[in-house]
Amino acid sequence: MATKLKLQSPRIPVGLEHINVDEHLHDKDSISLGTIEDCEIAEISADKTSFEQVVFKNVTFLDVTLPFAELTDVVFEKCDLSNVDFSEAIIHRVEIKNCKLMGMNMAGATLRDVTFDSCMANYTSFGYADFKQVQFNDCALSHADFYESIFKKTLFNHCQLEQASFAEVDLQGIDLSSCQFDSLTVSLNKLDGCVIAPEHTEGFARALGLILKE
Questions:
Q1: Apex CA 172: angle with CA 171 and CA 176, to 5°?
Q2: In the chain, domain spans
Q3: How far apart are CA 35 and CA 166, in angstroms?
């Protein structure tokens, strides 16, 4: 059974109205109280864009760059956020469900009360991000980069982590025992207290340059 954190859910009012993408996202730096669905959002580049109490459903993001964005009480469901730039974003009470996040950039982001559920998130960049009250459930995170991230109350439940990088990440108390991987990048001096399954021993030995002799 997967471990769950008691996270604060997005505070989404009932009866949100539909937001017209062309009328809002291309000429405003703040979007709130609405749903955006069944559309494409393309060729947007803006700093410090704010999203509050917004639901995205079945939305494809193309060539979207939103560094330093603020996302509060937001839901992404069945969206394609591949290669979106959310670097240095502040992300609070957000759910990302059944989304494609290939190559998404959250480097340096601050994440609080965030859930990633059943996401395809290979090659994502989380370097230098600050995680607290965050859980990844049934996500594909192969080749994801968590370089020098900070983990507090962060869970990985049944995730695919093949060749993910946790270099310079303090893994004390981080439970990877339900995850699948043959090899990871880790730092020897940051491994104390990391929880793994017996079948992970060989992969960790390789990551540390050890040779297991039968």
A1: 60
A2: 21-207
A3: 35
